[in-house]
Design a protein that fits this description.
heterodimer; A: mainly alpha; 79% helix; 0% strand; flat; B: mainly alpha; two-stranded antiparallel sheet; 14 helices; 2 strands; globular; disordered N terminus
Amino acid sequence: MVDEFGNLWVHRLKWAYLLLIVFSLMSPVFYVMYISFNENGFGAAEYVLTLESYSLIFSDKLMMTALQWTLSLAFCTTVVVVPMSILAAKFYKATRYKVLTVFLLLSPLFVAADIFGAALLVYFKNLNLMFTSVAEATGLSFLSGWFELGFITAWIGLIIYTIPYAFIVVLITMGRYRHEQTEAARACGASGWRAFWDIEFPQIRPGVFSACAFCVILCFNEYTRTSLLKGGFDTFTTVLVSQMLNEGMSNESYAMSSFVSFTAIAVIGSIILYTLIRSESLGQVARAKAEPNMAG
Amino acid sequence: MSSAEKQAPGRSNAAAGEPEGVLVPRLQSAAFVLPVTFMVVFFALPVALTAVWSVFERTMFWMEPGFTLFAYENFFTSARLINFLASMYHSFISVVICLILGFPIAVFVRRRIPQVAQHRVVLLFILPFMVSEIIRIFALRPILQRNGLVNETLMNLGLISEPITAILYTPTGVVIGEVLSFLPFVVFSGFLAMEAVPKYIFEVCDDLGAGPYRTFKDVILPLAAPGIFAGSVFIFVNGIGVALLPNTLGGPGAVNAGLIATQAITALDFPLAMAVSAIMMGTLMLLLYIGHRLFNLTHILDPIS
């Protein structure tokens, strides 16, 4: 390893570059946060610390309603996407059509939001027309309105958007699981569900929780597909963008942006911390188990 | 893996001859196919149907079945094509900048950082990626504008006497926005690509006295090519498809395919919006096909298979 770290300064320089890139990527967000606490707003000569902009967004009824819709969408999406990702990952492991499966599940990453949002919007409008026609022709009135733009269509759009991320996270975690354990559990008489819940799930739990966190954050952040598919209600980002486009960046806009960013950073920061603490504690357990052998 | 195992996971229960009825194993098998079916119905089908809807006749508020190439003619014989090609050019520049800035990080993490810490370092790049893209893009406005952070800092340092106005509301602003939005993806895909380069290969190169440039050109690049290509396609396609970037940072002249599609929907010209979507999907498929023929993109899956 002497060669690899032969020139310590070059190594440090590379680390500095890496951190500089992370800081550069985060700098717009940090700057927005900095402005959000200034009573005088952007460009003011004097910086007066305040939390007033934050209290304004929480007393805004439109904003609170939008927040409720966003939370509902995030909750419903997570509840569907995470189990679907687990099923998809298990299917991927077992199927012989791996390339096709992974292509289908990861393709939404490669299709730009506006392009896919437009395609889905027209698809839902056509489905809605078709269902309404069938309802009118058959008298089955419950069929009409299924795909009218609203909560369900926005929800489907978010499921398609978040599933690739959750799938990758679950698949990577599942990659460390040894299938022989399930086979042993089944040989001992455990049902398929019990083998999964008692043996496999505890081992993939960190990945499942990470997938949940990613889903919630991505739903909170998503704008394009939701704005095209949501119909009549507003989400946090659609209110934020319409405010920013119509009124420019107001103090409230800065506070809203910072609030969303703080939430995302807190969640991801918690995951990073949890991962660090968990790997450290697992390391300690492994070292403690290895000690008697080493002594022997 | 045996052939029985290679079937849908739920089927192995039935094969084991458990005292469950026929319905339960079938439902289990169906459950495993559910995500793929969902993706076919709500992703593959709408995307494929864009080609069909793009040749429909436009009506006042909607469209009706028929066959006309008017939407394509509208796209290819107007300024939209020039704008589309310009957005491709800017997107290509963004890809090159992202690769120059981001890929060395992936190589550094893979080559110089101990295995146990590698994923934690990559997690650092999740942080900016998880902050809303909209916020990151809008936040660039106060940074890049006339009295923004960049101009203020440069003027305070005495490097410029007048604020630079050519950054925001120009193609430069769009490229900066694309680089800041998509750079984490190059690090992720680069890191995944570097999984295909075993660590001992660096030692072999060092032993043979190959310099960093030769190692990169003749060893790293061919092995990591599928991952690099996938990351590049992601940035390129999103660069020409995300409407918010030119809309927020590019000023009046900046238009890309995503913006053309959303403007067409606002104008209730659904066939045009679908034609643009179909062209985008065609571009994506063509790029992926070329990439697959050149680099065999299935190698990207090796680390997670």
